[in-house]
Design brief:
single chain; about 425 residues; 8-stranded mixed β-sheet; binds 2H-imidazol-4-ylacetic acid; binds zinc ion
Length: about 425
Amino acid sequence: MPKQIDTILTNIGQLLTMESSGPRAGSAMQDLHVIEDAVVGIHDQRIVFAGKKGSEAGYEAENMIDCGGRLVTPGLVDPHTHLVFGGSREKELNLKLQGISYLDILAQGGGILSTVKETKAASEEELIEKGLFHLGRMLSYGITTAEVKSGYGLDKETELKQLAAAKKLQDRQPIDLVTTFMGAHAIPPEDRDSPDEFLNRMIALLPEIKEKQLAQFADIFTETGVFTVSQSRRYLKKAAEAGFGLKIHADEIDPLGGAELAAELHAVSADHLVGASDEGIQQLAASGTIAVLLPGTTFYLGKHTYARAREMIDAGVRVSLATDFNPGSSPTENLQLIMSIAALHLKMTAEEIWHAVTVNAAYAIGKGEEAGQLKAGRSADLVIWEAPNYMYIPYHYGVNHVHRVIKDGKTVVTREGTALG
Ligand code: IZC
Ligand code: ZN
């Protein structure tokens, strides 16, 4: 008697299972195992088998999906977003064209601080509704797991409101969410002259956030005009003592030594790293800290110098990629576009890019044992792509290649095309 399971995917042209015993570094990121003519079995929201045609022998399913020779991969993991916020910042695009920089806009009370005003003014329900809209779009682009930061409150009430909204979003849509407290995202204008006191207030929130299980990670913007390396060290050490995993917005615009700090504190990830020094890169390789690169931000800030991904991979750093979705420096939910920018500007190969948006991204947010790989027993989170092979996604840029998204064994997105076919 064949064993009855929920779903069998057949006729998969290329299957990437991304199976790996941990995050991949260096040349192991190039080592992509492609299974041609493959099948996947799903039961009770989990993968039963994922492998060569024939693996389905002895199984039967009412729901048979013919993949038509398409590419199938794990659902994408986006390990760095600022998803919950009020308002938008389209007016800053014109300022940018006039040559006013991101940090100048922030110093004038705009940028992050304008989003802080709009986030304070929004109710929790409004933040949830807006978050749902953006998460729906992320899901449509194939993202099934994502990180979400606070940091547009800078006071207790609004930071907690943002984190509570993020938590409630988990029950209102399918993407798995990991939350990060980022109260140290900017200095409110009234605290300009006493940043350490402001930082003390954010540090004082750590125990309550931990106790209410509102966030698993803590993050800080280590940048010129925001927080110094020594202020960041003080905040992150307190966060570690309170039981948070650590993340750092490191060397995004100016090279301050954020990479070195991330390595020193054994942060789970160091994010941005555009200005990371040679020494910082070596230290990240040694500490095992995952480099989350955000080339969409470099692109959108109109800069020409990108993070040195090649040097990082060659030095043995575990590299990941994310959208950095936020209303200022990277207003996009499209991780597929980031994959193209990574190919063209970070000079990453398609093989490295796939590791960066699946297995390594999952480890960058503490989900490495749950997301980013297709193997028996794991959640059935996968994407059927309108593409014949894995190289096609970074190659054909700026559009959505999703054919179908399956989350926890259920089809949550289908794109069957227009009347024209
Ligand atoms: O709202 O500008 N870089 N934080 C650090 C951001 C970008 C988000 C924003
Ligand atoms: Zn960010």
